[in-house]
Amino acid sequence: MRRKWRWILGALVAIVLLAVLVLWLLLRGSLAELDGERPLPGLAGKVTVERDALGVVTITAGNKADALRALGRIHAQERYFEMDLMRRSAAGELSALFGAKAIEADKRMRVHRLRTRTEAHLQDALGSDPAAVRAYVDGVNQGLGSLAVRPWAYLLLRQAPQPWQASDSVLAGLAMYADLQDPSNPSELALQRIRAVVPPALYALLAHDGSEWDAPLTGAPRGNAPLPDASQLDLRTLKAATGAVAEDADAVGSNNFAVAGALTADGRAIVADDMHLGLRAPSLWFRVRLRYPDPQAAGGQVDVSGFSLPGVPAVIVGSNGHVAWGFTNSYIDTADFRTEPADAAVTVHEERIVVAGSADVRFPVRETAWGPILHTHADGSGDALRWVAQLPGAVRMDFADMARAADLDQALQIADHAGIPAQNLVVGDRSGRIAWRLIGVRPDRGPHCSPLGFNDNQGNRGCAPWPIRSDAAPSLIDPPSHRLWTANSRVVDEATLATVGNGGYDLGARGRQIRDLLATQERFDEHDLLAIQLDDRAVFLQRWWVLLQEVIEHSDDPALKRLGAASAHWEGRAAINSTSYRVVREFRTQVLDTLTDALLAPARAQLGEDFLAPRLAQLEGVAWPMLEQRPANLLPPAYTSWDALLADAARRTEAELSTQGPLAHRTWGERNTAAICHPVARALPAFASRWLCMPADPLPGDRDMPRVQTPSFGASQRMVVSPGHEADGIVHMPGGQSGHPLSPYWGAGHEDWVHGRPTPFLPGKAQHTMTLVPVH
Predict the structure, then answer these.
(1) For the segment 80-106, what is each residue's pLDDT rounded down to a tens digit?
(2) Which of 23, 109, 188, 734 is deepest in the core (most CB within 10 A)?
(3) Per 3-state DSSP, what percentage of the chain is helix, strand, and coil (rounded to 5)?
(4) CA 642 from chain center: how many Å?
(5) CA separation for the pair 435, 479 (Å, rounded)
(6) Integer Cα distance of 487 and 507 in angstroms
């Protein structure tokens, strides 16, 4: 009997080992090809593809179409599943992969009908060189088809990848619109509803759009909000309904800044750029260098290095030896609601959402001349949304021409025709010149259309559906200070803001910290700008630490004394070993949550189920004057004094942190621990999902300082580069080049990003070389 059980156990072990071997072979079958000679139909000549130790790709080709065909092949083999997610997220087609749990997400995007709109205007979207885009698309499908096994994520989902189309590259661009501009425009709608039911003085506080931290490139700071007196607003006399305060979402955006040649030892302009987005494994971006002859390029040759977006045939951010460029999200107002009466002319489009494992879902989209109706009221009227991404020209592939720009003026000419989400472009050229320009698509509103609020039949009776434009944009060229900076806060002056609108730009603290650091030196090199990118000093929270110490000093509460002991030493940085930073940050959160709840309570009481919480990005400019002046009429009714409010916030801070153990051990790194995973990791058990995640490293930095880092949000790339001096450039990229966990490039370079170690901008020595040859 014992021998029999040994035989059974041995057989089971053998079966398990065989299953593991089969699984391992299947997974390896979808690894990208790295070496050897490979046929690639459609090539005009031989193309060389090199990879360095981090998997950074160098493509050397005889023309642009061949280079992009090869790029498509490489993107597909390393990142096809992630490319697929981008096109599906924009089109509202995720349910076909993930089943019923993705239906609501699909509806939120399908209401815009982006695939239908893209296909209706595809030729314009492909730009002036559609043949090059189609070469890229062919390369994508050839790369996918040449894998021995479909990409591993499809095996887990029991799905088959669908071929790539030219419209999918446009949708990949539209996916960035959805990331950078909320497709449902909730804050504008929330503020419109609030404005209708609260006193004007309360609305003015909630809608205040600046603070003393403003650091615009042009114009003066908006400053903190003036506080109303009791005759204008008294929170103690208003009907109120309290509720949970929504956690403030991370501002999607970036830092970019530049110094002109007058501030460098040899006259070089230097551009720094770090784009803040949701973090995942692999990285959103793919590092590449493209080299090919081009008679329209300076010297007849393109040699461009930087960050590409798999799915799009272009280097999005980088340097070509003549110009270097980078972006931050502009947060101009790119969408407007309009109230449509019940008898408005409406077209109903029946959208079909394919659902894996279930029946298709029919989804009717009601659309007016203004746009799709997102909300319908009891009286039959509706809120229609007009959003730039819905309109022809929102994506145009002509921005790829930055690869051949010869100087600053030519780069700005190309930027004027960029079909991309509205961005702050900072560019520098080889001669040492620098410039900022608002580029990308923005509404071309008529004289009766306001970007500041809600368009309806009363306030904006003459407002017709607006077109879009990308030319004649605001700019600042060759600034007298020889310095430029943007960080998602307000960049422009009052008059320009009245035209472009406020789409929810961020608090100015981060931008001001960058501006002030740039002002401290008269000479810079690449490492100086990297040091600014990595600056984790808590300048913004300094005064909050002082306030907390005052609260603790005037109390005998044992809980507050424990809090005081934990926060007494102020490092002044969001360092991973800092307890005081974590304590002060939590204290500020508790105070702001209390004030936010009080300011929104009257609207919540009036609106009931129709209440939406707006994003109050500039609340610091309201809250700090309240804490300084402590007016009785603005004291939240639950408290007898401002001292009581602050003491209560401190007690809640102590209680929140103490539940996790001794206060002295509650470091910032414990809370700010990386959670950077592959998109399918959440669908797997914990023991398996960890293989699809980057290490759980404690991360320095936070949102209101240049080094923006939270567990799954932060610098999706960093770049510091001078055109013509790319060999001195520096990059960081989290998550690695490859989307395959068995690839040597899964997570390659990630540790440098975590620790801020400089990685060379240009690719290193080739470790793998593949030759792509025409098929005759």
Answers:
(1) 999 999 999 999 999 999 999 999 999
(2) 734
(3) 40, 20, 45
(4) 37
(5) 7
(6) 9
